[in-house]
Amino acid sequence: MAKCPCCGRNRSWQLSDGRSKCRGCGCRFRERTAWQASRLPSRAKAELVQRFAWGVPAYRQRFGRLASQPATEHYHRVLRACMAHAEQLRAPFEGALECDESTFSGARKGKRGWSAAGKVLVFGIVKRDGLVKAQPIDARDRASVMQVIQAHRREGSLYYTNEWQAYATLRMRGEHVIIRKEKGRPVGRDHINGIEGFWSHAKNWLHPYRGVPRNCFHLYLGEICYRFNRRREDLRPLLIKLLKITTIEQLEPILVPFD
């Protein structure tokens, strides 16, 4: 349902000219999609989408630039917000699931490990031989982890995790297989190679950006999940379609304003 820009209500009906009319205040308005929000020419926007699909950062486009660097970075941020929004709408997983947590941060001096300063904690779920979901968490504790698992899985799933004690209650939500390791290698035939491979993929993908703003990290993580889940598809037509069906109002909860 379209949101009225005057009174903020979500009650409206569609008019014959494509606009919407609010049932409360009578305001007539037209929803702006992410594609329409940019004033760049359509040809320039399509080329920016192609370069983004190839993974070319904005700072590497200073030669043969289609728009100014701030405009390019803003357009990339809108694209990431669309991808993150699409991943939020994904249905909960079921079946064999691999769960794990990781940290993201640049190299720095001082304390290492989970308690190191400046780290972003991320929890991820991978469906065996399939899709992934990942999101930042506030703390590495049982409550934070179980909240994510509860939201993104169906009852009766089979869980593969490491030996961390926070996963002990998973046996009450389905079957639970604990992966034990010796010298970094799993003991037996069970493994969590899927989620560990995703962590490696995500950190390698972020490396060329030479650091990302902390307040935008959730958008970069949504982009990585979107790319990973569609790794066998051509992203250009998918992204253009996504820009044309996603409205700015849908992106407001996650889109970070451009400085």
Short description:
This protein has about 260 residues and is an alpha+beta fold.
Question: Keywords, please?
Answer:
259 residues, alpha+beta, Nucleotidyltransferase, domain 5, 3 domains, five-stranded mixed β-sheet, three-stranded antiparallel β-sheet, 8 helices
Please tell me about this protein's structure:
It contains 8 helices and 10 strands. It is an alpha+beta fold and 259 residues long. Helix 2 crosses helix 3, helix 2 packs across helix 7 and helix 5 packs across helix 6.
Tally of discrete structural domains: 3
Q: Please state roughly what percent of the residues sit in beta strands, choosing from under 5%, 5-15%, 15-25%, 25-35%, 35-45% or over 45%.
A: 15-25%
As residue ranges, the low-confidence spans are none
* CATH topology annotation of the largest domain: Nucleotidyltransferase, domain 5
Structure class: alpha+beta
Number of helices: 8
Give the secondary structure arrangement, pairings included.
Elements: E1 12-14, E2 20-22, E3 28-29, H1 34-37, H2 42-54, H3 69-88, E4 96-104, E5 120-127, E6 132-136, H4 142-152, E7 157-161, E8 174-178, E9 181-182, E10 185-186, H5 193-206, H6 217-229, H7 235-245, H8 248-251
Parallel strand pairs: 4-7, 7-8
Antiparallel strand pairs: 1-2, 2-3, 4-5, 5-6, 9-10
Helix pairs in contact: 2-3, 2-7, 3-6, 5-6
